[in-house]
Amino acid sequence: FGAHSRPPSAFAAIYAKGGIPCRLVHGSVKHRLQWECLPETVPFDPLLVTLAEGLRETKHPYTFVSKEGFKELLMVEGAAEKAIPLLPRLIPVLKAALAHSDDEVFRRGLDALVQLSAVVGPSLNDHLKHLLTNLSRRLMGKKLREQVTVALQKLEQYGG
Question: Sorted alphabetically, which InterPro entries does this protein's record hold (predicted)?
């Protein structure tokens, strides 16, 4: 009757092996990421997809590293040119986060989608059809309706 030990997720395994070039720095008030090299020099492929996969994590530090790492990578100069070719691989991963039953995982996926949309703009439009069913499902419930509505407005704004 002992607790079943599940194998670590792909993200957790990659993080444990040092495959993600940043580490969590525990501050007294706020956590932050420390990159081993400048985020501008990090290859987006496959790191951005791996960080997006980590959005489905439910344990600390994976939740923070994936969310913050995804955000910081998208803030580097030239992020659009690096992220647009990865859209076909990012969309299924974001879709899985948006389909997750955990509300926090859904929120992280929604935030990541809005951040990605702000960076790649109209390039995301062709891929949105894969995500809208999961968004509309959460739109029906009261708990996340406002956040989904705001996200849809931002997607419209960035997508043109």
Answer: ARM-like (IPR011989), ARM-type_fold (IPR016024), Parkin_co-regulated_protein (IPR019399)
Indicate the helix (H) or strand (E) that contains 24. Answer: strand 22-25
* Residue where the block lists tokens 């997750």: 100
Strands 32-35, 22-25: parallel, antiparallel or unpaired by DSSP? antiparallel
H-helix segments, 4-131: 10-16, 44-53, 62-74, 79-83, 87-99, 103-120
| CA–CA distance, 33 with 31 (Å, rounded to integer) | 7
Name the token pair of 55.
Answer: 């959005």
Crossing angle of the two packed helices 145-159 and 103-120, in degrees rounded to 10: 10
Q: Which two tokens stand for residue 84?
A: 């647009």
pLDDT at 26: 86
Is residue 5, in this structure, part of any structural domain at all?
Answer: no
Ranges of residues in the chain whose predicted pLDDT is under 50: none
**Any domain includes 116:** yes
Domain count, the chain: 1
- pTM of the entire predicted model: 0.92
- The Cα-based distances of 14 to 18, 20, 137 in angstroms read 6, 7, 32
Residue 113: inside a domain: yes
pLDDT of residue 113: 97
